[in-house]
Amino acid sequence: MTRTSPEASSLPVSDTEAHIELNEAYAAHNYHPLRVVLSSGEGAWVTDVEGRRYLDCLAGYSALNFGHGHPRLVARAQEQLGRLTLTSRAFYNDQLGPFARDLAQLTGKEMVLPMNSGAEAVETAIKVARKWGYLVKGVPENRATIVAMEGNFHGRTTTIVSFSTDAVATAHYAPYTPGFRLVPYGDAAALEAAVDETTVAVLLEPIQGEGGVIIPPEGYLQQVRTLCNSAGVLMVADEIQSGLARTGRTFACSHEEVVPDVYVLGKALGGGIYPVSAIAADGDVLEVITPGSHGSTFGGNPLAAAIGREVVAMLETGEYQECARTLGDRLAAGLGELVGNGVDAVRTRGLWAGVDISPELSTGRRVCEDLLDHGVLAKEAHGQTVRLAPPLVASEDDIDLLVRALGEVCAG
Length: 412
Ligand SMILES: *Cc1c(COP(=O)(O)O)cnc(C)c1O
Fold this sequence. Notes:
Blueprint: H1 15-26, E1 38-42, E2 45-48, E3 53-56, H2 59-62, H3 71-81, H4 96-107, E4 111-115, H5 118-137, E5 145-149, H6 158-161, H7 167-170, E6 180-183, H8 188-194, E7 199-204, H9 220-231, E8 234-238, E9 262-265, E10 277-281, H10 283-286, H11 302-316, H12 319-336, E11 343-348, E12 353-357, H13 364-373, E13 376-377, E14 379-380, E15 385-388, H14 396-410
Parallel strand pairs: 3-13, 5-6, 5-7, 7-8, 8-9
Antiparallel strand pairs: 1-2, 2-3, 4-10, 9-10, 11-12, 12-15, 14-15
Helix pairs in contact: 3-11, 4-11, 12-14
The structure holds pyridoxal-5'-phosphate.
């Protein structure tokens, strides 16, 4: 394929066009970004290379729950940057212990296992569940099964895409990792039918984020908990996107007073600064992990631990959960007005919304492009759904601006 190099163009191009050309020429096309090039951010707002400001209503897929450049997180990161950033786990460092203790306390679990990306944390949960299945439950070696949900999103590794139902995410990556069974999300009877004596875990998102902010039927998480208890199966909740205050509680499972056996955390755990992920579980589960049986060069490094610990401290006050509830109520009220006016349905929990755009009006993608012209950044989830997840530090005026912009876009 021939490339037109940016330098070859004789026409003057805007900074935006120049950056997009560079990206398209040299960075693999694994995303289809909106045509905006961001260069700075503060709180809920970002600025592009032309000096235009936008309200960030994607918030890094909820990695930016505390907004851009939160002073408390930046200060802690900068302090740690100048002190010690990486030791490897071949030695102890003075940041991991306090972080692990505080995160264990936040989750109500006895131990944590730190990783970096969300997908790595999911992989960790899968490995722990299988090993627990063989060593504790007594599943015959090589037979362990994990039940996952149709419409799931758990990351991009070869094992994780092996049980994805998204054709684009899975095509041409075979052979796939065996040992997974899929059932419809929200269907407790189907789940019960899929669980047998080989089952070591049920893996689910308490709300499916990438699936379009899909909230399961009331009582479903309770049913999953009860089934896992009676079948002797680990309930593994992927709270990477739903957790850490987004829904108005620290964890989305808490809305049904459900405590999973394993929490999988990521995204906002790194404060929008650094990739930090972890799983949290009790000792009877996590103690199957022994030296050499799992690891990561960067997982649990002092910089990650320092930032993660500050995030945990910020969550302990409950103030961000409160912001998610009050701003979320305001967003829900505003979005409710749009149903019937270009919007077919709205699902919200805390400051998190899935907005189904009427197919007669437009597509999710088109609406996001139009929102960009109104100074709002958002991203479609699946086809017709626009996912809204502003930083929890947004103001009431910001929420009103978002609702007004979406109303104007949907009015055509
Ligand atoms: C984003 C996400 C992941 C994957 O996290 P990465 O950091 O991108 O690897 C896994 N599960 C859920 C629910 C997510 O939203």
